[in-house]
Specification:
Two copies of one chain form a homodimer.
Chain A (H helix, E strand, L loop, with lengths): L3 E6 L4 E6 L5 E7 L10 H13 L7 E4 L14 E2 L4 H5 L3 E2 L7 E3 L3 E4 L5 E4 L2 H10 L2 H4 L3 E6 L4 E7 L2 E8 L1 H11 L10 H10 L6 H13 L8 H20 L7 E5 L3 H12 L3 E5 L1 H15 L4
Parallel strand pairs in A: 1-4, 4-7, 5-8, 10-13, 13-14
Antiparallel strand pairs in A: 1-2, 2-3, 6-7, 8-9, 10-11, 11-12
Helix pairs in contact in A: 3-10, 5-8, 6-8, 7-8
Chain lengths: 303, 303
């Protein structure tokens, strides 16, 4: 195996790593240049003129995952169908016309969603495969449930080393727009008691549009401090997600959920899972995505 | 009985009617002067210097309902507890210091909501009582379920002529902010097929944050026209409300739901209810609120 460039290019940010033959990170870069901020054609020049020189990657092969493979990215990498393991996905990598070294895109994943609609992901499939590869003998067998919190949270069911099925929830985006644009608008410091109150008010995760109004009613009728609304709302939305999504994947509550993420949000999900009777384990999103890109690069013979 | 002024003063608009002793409307006014747009103290001057002269109401008694009785209105009329009938609410009218004629505020209603939080309404209690009064011998007995669509939709359980319990859903507000500020943003003409598709995707009304993402996935993965997203989203949100809320009121699906409202939204709810096996009857919101204000004015001895 040789060194390679691992790149996670999402909607908002771009993260890249030069990874040596042993899998160690030798250089890293993070830029606020997500695909939602790129002009047409800008992805390629950013890659060739900025990323490659700054990571001193010369002609090393590169593998890119995330929204860079979407219609608003560099080039479209069509969705692979579920269930899918590393070998399935590696077969569907899309070659990029880059001036330096071979460069390939990881496809997104698609599975059946609600009432005949599909569900989709881009980027999280690489983290999920990377999570398996980090502990292959154990995670390569049996059923595991992963939770990847974010703007669009993903719950992923792993069976025998493959991504069997997944569900997306717009939890992070709902939190964001409700706090900015609704009758629940307002800021406030983290409040653990209000967060727990919101978690409990989530109930079975049903009737969310009604439960949301409790965030308003508790202030106007119950004299709760409006500065605690954001924490209550966070608990309510995360609680509703945890209450409803595992069941839709055919998983009963109270097992082990593996949370993949790097920020305070992952810790918040772990706390919420624990309060609802799950055993939560948090894993680094960065470690998982690098592991997944290395696995796919190896499967594809890129390194 | 004498003539009186009936006023429904909400967040966005103000509607007023001069109602004669027989209950007929003799004059009407509608102004875009909801309480969210008023400066401090402006409510009283608007009432005395604009409404009274324009409705030629002189010293007729006036009864006001809606958000005008909230903390951002003219004066606070504390919430009455459920269950409540016309006599209970009439006892809690709040007198206003108006320069011309007696004027009183209708209190809002409060009931138990989720996980110890309250639920609240202001204005809809008057419409609900008015709906009962329009057909007193029939509606004064038994159980009836009312649906009042809007920014904050209300589902109301009537038992033996009193408001027994209710639930609020932020359906209209969610539709609004999702269309304006989220990844589901965009406009499009009404599309009946996409509306029905969204209704079906609402399922049992659970996992709403996940079902919402299907509005995105059906476009990026299933090649549905993005111009149909708004109609799909409308169906999904209304469908989730209809699937989840009646059960929380202890009412099983498939009965008669009385929809109170004047606009296209009421017709949309009626269509959604019919598709989900309900018998829907639409009633004029204007007729109901005038009927309710007249009933309360009579109960309080104001007319």
């Amino acid at each position: 195996m040789s060194a390679f460039l691992a790149i996670d290019w999402g909607t908002t940010n771009l993260r890249g790593w030069r990874v040596n033959a042993d899998g160690d990170v030798e250089a890293r870069i993070q830029l606020p240049c997500g695909v939602s901020k790129l002009a047409k054609g800008e992805a390629q020049s950013l890659f060739e003129d900025e990323l490659i020189p700054r990571l001193a990657a010369d002609d090393a092969p590169a593998l890119l995952c995330g929204m860079i493979g979407s219609t608003i990215g560099w080039r479209v990498a069509p969705y692979a169908p579920c269930p899918a393991g590393a070998a399935d996905i590696a077969r569907l990598l899309v070659k990029l016309d880059a001036r330096r070294g071979p460069a390939m895109l990881v496809p997104g994943l698609r599975c059946d969603g609600f009432a005949g609609a599909s569900d989709v992901m881009r980027g999280e499939e690489t983290q999920a495969l990377g999570w398996i590869a980090l502990d292959e003998p154990y995670r390569g067998a049996g059923r595991h449930i992963l939770c990847l919190p974010g703007t669009h949270s993903k719950w992923v069911l792993i069976e025998d080393g493959r991504i069997h099925h997944f569900i997306t929830a717009m939890t992070g985006e709902l939190f964001d727009i409700l706090r900015k644009h609704s009758v629940l608008a307002g800021d406030g410091a983290d409040d653990a008691a209000a967060f727990a109150e919101g978690l409990d008010a989530a109930g079975r995760g049903d009737a969310l549009s009604a439960r949301l109004f409790s965030a308003r009613a508790r202030v106007v009728a119950d004299d709760k401090d409006a500065a605690t609304t954001a924490s209550y709302l966070s608990g309510l939305l995360i609680g509703a997600e945890i209450a409803a999504l595992p069941g839709l994947l055919g998983v009963s509550a109270g097992q082990t959920a593996h949370v993949i993420g790097d920020d305070a949000l992952a810790a918040r999900y772990a706390a919420a899972l624990a309060r609802r009777g799950w055993a939560a384990q948090v894993h680094s999103g960065e470690t998982c995505v690098i592991s997944g890109l290395r696995l796919l690069a190896r499967e594809a013979g890129l390194i």
